[in-house]
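DM from R.C. (forwarded with permission)

"hey, sorry to bug you on a friday — could you get me a structure for this? deadline for the figure draft is monday and I only need the backbone to look sensible"
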Amino acid sequence: MFKKTSLLTIVFALSILFAKSSAPAVSENHSETEKSESYNPVPMIMHHIADAHEIHFWGEGENSVSVPLPVILWTNNGLVSFMNSEFHHDDAGHHVVEKKGMKFTKAHGKIYYANENADSHGSYISHDEDGHSENSKPLDFSITKSVVGIFVTMIILLLVFTSVARSYKTNGGIPKKLTGWMEPLVVFVRDDIAKENIGEAKYKKFVPFLLSIFFFILVLNILGLTPLGFNVTGNIAVTLVLALVTLFVTLKSANKNYWGHIFNPPVPGALKPLMIPIEIVGIFTKPFALMIRLFANITAGHIVILSLISLIFVAQAGSGTGMAWAVSPAAFALTLFIFVLEVLVAFLQAYIFTLLTALFVGMSVEEHH
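My reply, with the result:
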């Protein structure tokens, strides 16, 4: 227990240090008005929860330490690929790069075709009256931070389950070490989720799918709590795909009883014109709820943790270093509490997503009583 607590504390402390390193220094020579406006935590928070074309560790500008990732674009002139590190700052401070006779610019993590001439503000991105970008964008197939997080999760799962399978084979089916940790989780998903919600007659063929969903989301959630900050399940595109996979499996497995309930609901005839559209909409609202629930809970946890850490820097900006030290103990304690709670949420959200998936599949394969 001591080792587990120590490991959790170390990971938490490293996460704070990585967040702190992204906060700009505050000068003590500013006036009170300047101090109160010198640190805005929103850009730092959005930077940490958003996807990116690099894995950022700490620092800013020339002092930034990060790993550039491949940028892969489908443009008007075909495929263009280069490393994110090839983006450079022009005289106006904008990220630009030229490839195959085309100039690209990057703003807020998005890559656009750059205008040939910068506007009056020195920007290569033009905007309409509402402030929306009018620049067209190439199709972006880049290996972003979220994609790297998915690859890392796949490798972890392959290594873990290959090791578990080998252990069962060599030890005569007796769980030892890692296998002893994994077996209760696998049995839990099989018996308490799959069998309970799909039914004993049909649950077996869905167990591999449910296990994949559960451990994939679980590892991604835990990976998001490490100092690397892979906020993959906080990316709504990822949760959308997971929800669509659930929808596909549900509809593909659906029997006549399921479709009969949709298009011929067991209600009085006068209510059928009202209930049929509701049932059809319900097909899509179920996976939509899965998508939003996972995305919102994971993103909210990251925002709360980073907001509590930012209290230290807001206090420093407003009242100096002394106030920052005074606020630090309370901010640290609250952040540690939320961090531990997020570990629980990582397991809970994986369980809820898998449970609801099993429930939806169970409804689609249930026989008529």
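R.C.: lifesaver. The beta strands are 54-58, 65-68, 70-75, 78-83, 88-89, 95-99, 102-107, 110-113, 139-140.
me: no worries. Residues 16-36 have pLDDT under 50 and may be disordered.
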